[in-house]
Amino acid sequence: MSVTTGGAKEALDELLEFHWMMDMIQTVDVGIVVFNRDFEIKVWNGFMEAHSGLLPSDVRDKVLFSLFPDIAPAWFSQKVKSVFDLRTRAFITWEQRPYLFKFRNYRPITSSAPYMYQNVVFSPLVSATGAVEHVCMMIYDMTDAASAKKQLLSLQVKEAELQEQSDLSK
């Protein structure tokens, strides 16, 4: 095998790997959004498309806040500042804030929540130059877990009330 043929095979292998990695990003059941320091969206995966109704071509290079005015720019900017500046991850849990994106709950039969509860992870993306110019935001649907926890808390409150009534009647 010649050096040229080996190089072509390696290039083809890298292209095929890139293709299946992109397919994975598009089909994973997690929202993936990549944005730059100006909050311009660069990547918008299939999860985000399915739940927002917006195509990647609709959001690419648009500022996140112009598409989602419910997200407060000052709060959000502060939340991701450490991700850009300190190269650390940041998190939002559904207990702190039920959702970042006001997506309708797509399982209304099994859950009474009108909107999707979400956990969000912000991860710095370090470029080849070592700078963090982009952040990857991953949105996890936590609706089932949130609904179950809320049901459990409700049952605990009812049980405590029944116990209190029982104690009073003695």
Automatic annotation (TrEMBL):
<dbReference type="InterPro" id="IPR013656">
    <property type="entry name" value="PAS_4"/>
</dbReference>
<protein>
    <submittedName>
        <fullName>PAS domain-containing protein</fullName>
    </submittedName>
</protein>
<dbReference type="InterPro" id="IPR000014">
    <property type="entry name" value="PAS"/>
</dbReference>
<dbReference type="InterPro" id="IPR035965">
    <property type="entry name" value="PAS-like_dom_sf"/>
</dbReference>
<dbReference type="Pfam" id="PF08448">
    <property type="entry name" value="PAS_4"/>
</dbReference>
<feature type="domain" description="PAS">
    <location>
        <begin position="19"/>
        <end position="85"/>
    </location>
</feature>
